[in-house]
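Why should sequence recovery work at all? Because a backbone constrains its sequence more than one might expect. Tight turns favour small or flexible residues, buried strands favour hydrophobic ones, and helices have their own preferences. The token representation captures these environments compactly. In the example below, the structure is given first.
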């Protein structure tokens, strides 16, 4: 076969791969590991409409939280009543009753009582969060230690939106604590994330707002290397913390699918849904 013929064959193979890989990513189920159904979302986006949104975009499981926790209970009730029409719900207790709690929960004894009261409802809670905490001092309070101790004793996960100093403080409370790191630290570089993952086997990175995964639509070498090295340590998330994120839900999922298509199939499957299903299996 001539060199020109070999080049043509190679070009056709490359085109075929580029055409088929997006379709493979499109078929992948999605585990949305960072979803909020807050009070302000419930009127413009009632439960039937958000269930339809999940079905439309292939979202099979959601890690649900809300402020207050009524929204999470509503999604869990809908999934229980009509499992064929709803995603599986992995409910987390959010330690916020209102917006103000975000700035004070880590030193407010009433929040521990709130968590206990939610656990008594027993809807299958799997974790606590998402919560915001920054700096070693705020993450190191006795109140946070009580919550970490509770999580470890009950086999619950924490979903922490925090900086590196706060993350270190959480692990100082108890190195066994299981943590979903919201946004994978937001601006923490892939090389630094690798250090955290290799130091703490109970840490999982969630990828909402990590638009630095790609540059001009192409996955960066640093992120590809990290995903291939640690395919079992990442989750996707929509982070519907404001209603605009609900309005753009399909766009958010499409962005994930665009770069999942650039990964080896087994890595893409793990990040899209496999890790979430493994870490939070059906009970």
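From this structural description, the recovered sequence reads:
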């Amino acid at each position: 076969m001539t060199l020109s013929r070999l080049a043509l064959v190679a070009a056709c193979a490359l085109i075929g791969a580029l055409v088929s890989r997006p379709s493979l990513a499109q078929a992948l189920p999605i585990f949305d590991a960072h979803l909020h159904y807050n009070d302000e979302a419930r009127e413009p986006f009632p439960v039937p409409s958000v269930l339809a949104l999940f079905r439309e975009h292939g979202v099979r499981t959601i890690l649900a939280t809300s402020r207050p926790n009524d929204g999470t209970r509503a999604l869990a009730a809908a999934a229980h009543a009509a499992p064929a029409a709803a995603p599986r719900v992995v409910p987390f207790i959010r330690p916020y009753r209102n917006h103000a709690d975000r700035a004070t929960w880590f030193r407010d004894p009433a929040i521990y009582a709130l968590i206990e009261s939610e656990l008594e409802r027993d809807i299958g809670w799997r974790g606590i969060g998402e919560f915001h905490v920054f700096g070693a001092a705020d993450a190191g309070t006795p109140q946070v230690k009580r919550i970490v101790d509770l999580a470890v004793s009950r086999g619950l996960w924490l979903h922490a939106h925090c900086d590196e100093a706060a993350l270190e403080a959480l692990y100082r409370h108890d190195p066994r604590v299981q943590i979903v790191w919201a946004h994978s630290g937001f601006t923490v570089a892939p090389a630094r994330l690798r250090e955290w993952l290799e130091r703490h086997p109970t840490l999982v990175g969630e990828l909402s707002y990590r638009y630095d995964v790609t540059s001009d639509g192409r996955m960066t070498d640093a992120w590809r290397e990290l995903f291939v090295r640690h395919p079992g340590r990442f989750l996707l998330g929509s982070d519907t913390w404001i209603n605009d994120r609900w309005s753009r839900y399909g766009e958010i999922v499409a962005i994930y699918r665009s770069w999942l298509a650039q990964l080896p199939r087994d890595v893409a499957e793990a990040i899209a849904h496999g890790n979430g299903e493994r870490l939070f299996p059906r009970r």
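A few observations help interpret the result. The chain is about 50% helix and 15% strand.
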